[in-house]
Amino acid sequence: MYAFTYETPASVADAARLAAAGGKPMAGGQSLLPSMRLRLANPGQVIDLNNIPELAGIRRDGNALVIGAMARHMDVAASSEVKAAIPALAELASHIGDRQVRARGTLGGSVANNDPAACYPSAVLGLSATVITNRREIAADKFFVGMFTTALEEGELITAIRFPIPKRAAYLKFKQAASRFSLVGVFVAQTDSGVRVAITGAASCVFRHAGLEAALNQSFTPQSAAAVKIDASDLNADIHASAAYRANLISVQTQRAVAQMLG
After folding, report:
1. Under DSSP, is residue 46 helix (H, G, I), strand (E, B) or coil?
2. Is the sign of the CA dihedral 35, 41, 42, 48 positive or negative?
3. What is the pTM assigned to this prediction?
4. Which in 39, 53, 147, 165 has the greatest CB count within 10 A?
5. Which has the closest alpha carbon to 133: 143, 119, 147?
6. Which keywords label this protein (predicted)?
7. Start and end residues for every CATH 3.30.390.50 domain found in the chain
8. Residue 243 pLDDT greater than 90, yes or no
């Protein structure tokens, strides 16, 4: 691990000032610290966000849930507000990593990191959530740019995420056994503006599947999803699964998610 200085700001304003000067924000540290230990990252200055009260909390705001960036996975999974309003989100959070990861990892950290196989980005995109930062609000469809890349600018910090409450939703995750990341994860949501299907783990970045959305908007049944051909040409292929296998998983997981939503 390279040498670095360690800052513990007590406000978003102080954290943003340090980040604008080149410091690296740290939420749960589940991605940053391993990278530093392996000398894959050399931030020079680490900005610990854990002592900023305004970044925590989960609350209902009209027809939406607003979840603070520093909400732990275990907090989202256990929240009565989340379970009542968006049970699929609580279920998603309850299966991230292992118990230790869920006790430290955060919603904001996961979304800002945008790992190609992370679970939360599919919920943000599938629910058409809004990412709230210290500078602006960013729609989910414009937030995820590419592998480990988002629309966040230098010095910009996620403070909360606003999730519209859907009519119903489900998340189906096929885990990579060792890492517990998504080999393929599918988040399906019926919203006021129609069905949204967000896929994680299958490509270099979370994405919506237009074909599945169109089919399910026309007929919300597992059979409708099964009839959609999933193009494997842009999907990941690695030692864990071929692109064709991931394409099949997208179809199967979507069908199962729809069946679960129909009860």
Report:
1. strand
2. negative
3. 0.95
4. 165
5. 143
6. FAD, Flavoprotein, Oxidoreductase
7. 168-262
8. yes
Cα dist. 72→38, 54, 101, 251 in Å?
Answer: 25, 14, 9, 31
Q: Is 234 helix (H, G, I), strand (E, B) or coil?
A: coil
CATH class of 51-164: alpha beta
CATH 3.30.43.10 residue ranges of the chain are 1-50
Q: Which CATH number fits domain 168-262: 1.10.287.110, 3.40.80.10, 3.30.70.2740, 3.30.390.50?
A: 3.30.390.50
State yes or no: pLDDT of 59 exceeds 90. yes
Task: Kindly report the CATH number that applies to the domain delimited by 1-50.
Answer: 3.30.43.10
Return all residues near 19 (Cβ < 8 A) that are at least 6 apart: 25, 47, 154, 155, 156, 157
Closest CA to 175 of 162, 186, 188: 186
Burial 177-202 (b: 16+ CB within 10 A, else e): eeeebbbbbbbbbbbeeebbbbbbbb
How much is the mean pLDDT over the chain? 96
Question: Angle at the Cα of 218 (from 225 to 245), degrees rounded to 5?
Answer: 15
126 and 197 Cβ atoms separated by less than 8 Å = yes
Read off the tokens for 217.
């908007």
* Residue 76 main-chain phi, psi, to 5 deg: -65, -40
Whole-Å CA distances, 92 to 1, 25, 87, 88, 262:
32, 25, 9, 6, 18
How far is it, in rounded angstroms, from Cα 43 to Cα 11? 21
